[in-house]
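Obj: model holo form, ligand = (2S)-amino(hydroxy)ethanoic acid.
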Amino acid sequence: MSIVEDFDHRWAQLLPVGRHSGTGGYRRYAWTREDHTLREWFAGECAALGLDLTEDRMGNQWAWWGDPDRSPGVVIGSHLDSVPDGGAYDGPLGVVSALSVVRELKDHGFTPSVPIGVVNFGDEEGARFGVACAGSRVLTGAMTPERALGLTDADGVSMAEALRAAGRTAEIGADPAALARIGSFVELHVEQGRALDLMDPATSAVAVGTDIWPHGRWRADFTGRADHAGTTALADRQDAMLEAARFALAAREAAARRDGEHRCVATVGKLDVRPGGVNAIPSSVTAWLDARSPQESLVRGVIEDLTAMFPDAISEESWTETTRFHDALTTRVRDALGPDTPMLGTGAGHDAGILAQAGVPTTMLFVRNPTGASHTPEEFAEPADCHAGVEALLTVVKDLAA
Ligand code: HGY
Ligand code: MN
Ligand code: MN
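Output (holo structure tokens):
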């Protein structure tokens, strides 16, 4: 079987898992039944390839060809979880490509000079517990285990409880030994914008990553008083939704004031409304804000404006500084792929960014996305471009492990 056929075969296996029959979107959340199915699938594929499967202290899965305790290895892979009603490609494209690369190398008798690892990071999207890249943040020590275990989902279930319900221990924590096994990390990912598509079509379907914009998540809590939606006069109401609505508009305006030569974006994508009845005045609303820009000062400015308007309401949930990928690794990867390979920064966050922040030599490959749509069932990459991605990853691994 060619590498491309192998990729197509594995891709088809994953497609039905966690796909919602109504929306067509994926609902693959950390430590749920779907997540368990995906982890089992990953473990089975790795076993079939003869890789040694381990987990770090946060439950991220690592499958090794060779012994990374003797010498740090080249790691490829990504994540299998999704945002609510996400697309098929964000995450799985990198994991499936990595498995196909390993099979191809093994089938052709390649002898790696260093160990090769495939990773499946857990809880990259933070869809359930709110903090993105929870798996890599705890692994690297960027988030304490106490904080992670205390995060709760929409039903009030804590991560500690979710881990136990999944039959796991809540004894999680940073894992310097697991981190020390990574000599370099190359995460292949679907592009989440149209930059590659807008380039000359003669250029590559694959780009090398340069950097990740600074970005963060904040929550804003607004309090009102529950009452009857029909009998309470407008003048007597304390409706928490009104402040939340002002907050969403103010966030958009604060970003728009700064959006110019450098992009600046802000989104309120999630609300928790209590008591949550159509005919009840909201007694509390929590709004979650995501804000990003290539310029850190612009994001900070948005938060300063909002904090001035809504003092005491806003708290930071996560913050990731500008991340530049490792210069020498990025250059080497680009050299391996050819001097015309485009270089691309991204406004999306990735485990690769968290590892880079922790000092691991890291870079990324992006596969062209013809519409730029992502975090939606519409997310798509042409099969030929996915194949170009897996071939590019093969070239890169052959070079790094030669
Ligand atoms: O939210 C993000 O940037 C992501 O795709 N993890
Ligand atoms: Mn994503
Ligand atoms: Mn992703």
